[in-house]
Amino acid sequence: MAKLLYSATASLDGYIAGPGGDMSWLTEHLTGENPTADRLLAGVGAILAGNGTFGGGDPNRGTDKEGAFGGQYHGPVFVLTHRPPAEPHPGITFVGDLPSAVAQAREAAGDRYVNVLGADVARQCVRAGLLDEVLIFFAPVLLGAGVRIFDDPGGSAVRLTPIPGETAHWYRVAR
Q1: 28-55 exposure pattern, b = at least 16 Cβ within 10 A, e = fewer
Q2: Where are the extended beta strands (E) located within 119-174?
Q3: pLDDT in 10s for each residue of the chain, 175 residues
Q4: C-alpha span between 134 and 163 (Å, rounded)
Q5: Cβ atoms of 80 and 98 closer than 8 Å
């Protein structure tokens, strides 16, 4: 069964998007080789994103690198939202509740990862006990404000354990 993996690139002060969801800061940090990102991409069978992430600012918008993983991901995408668009988007499935979205994404992913994109969907997955792994890439910048990697006011601590033999900042959610 597919594992749910929350992955994100964050500033050193813990933000995955700037104020207002701005992603333009990320563009200059998406250059060069990244073997871990390449391995991640090869293991992703489906993406589960929130509506804010889906409709948010792509740092590569308007270029040939637009889309998930710099335009390299070409697979099923499930967007968790209570406000699906009036017009369908090819290759995108809009789902109104977390259990259905996770079930459909897992089925589509097979034995590969469901890559969770977006802090709010990650929080919902943690609260529901569904998240299996977390992978965070860090960019050498301090944003000062924006969307945190993970924010769950009133939530409980979530223990993460390093995955043996894996890169730094790739963790398993301890259960």
Answers
A1: eebeeeeebbeebbeebbbbbbbbbbbe
A2: 133-139, 147-148, 160-162, 170-173
A3: 899 999 999 999 999 999 988 888 888 887 778 888 889 999 999 999 988 777 666 665 666 665 666 666 889 999 999 988 888 888 889 999 999 999 999 999 999 999 999 999 999 999 999 999 999 999 999 999 999 999 999 889 999 999 998 888 999 999 8
A4: 10
A5: yes
- Give the per-residue pLDDT at 132: 98
Task: Give the three-class secondary structure for 112.
Answer: coil
What sign results for the dihedral spanned by CA atoms 107, 80, 149, 37? positive
For the record, the structure tokens of 147 come out as 């969307």
Per DSSP, 174 falls in state P
**Phi, psi (rounded to 5 degrees) for 154:** 85, -5
Secondary structure of the chain: what % helix, strand, coil (to 5)?
A: 25, 25, 45
Question: What local confidence, expressed as pLDDT, does residue 140 receive?
Answer: 95
Half-sphere exposure of 55 (CA within 13 A, CB side): 10
Rounded Cα–Cα distance for residues 35 and 41 (Å)? 10
Interatomic CA distance for residues 141 and 160, integer angstroms? 24
Torsions phi, psi of 112, nearest 5?
A: -100, -175
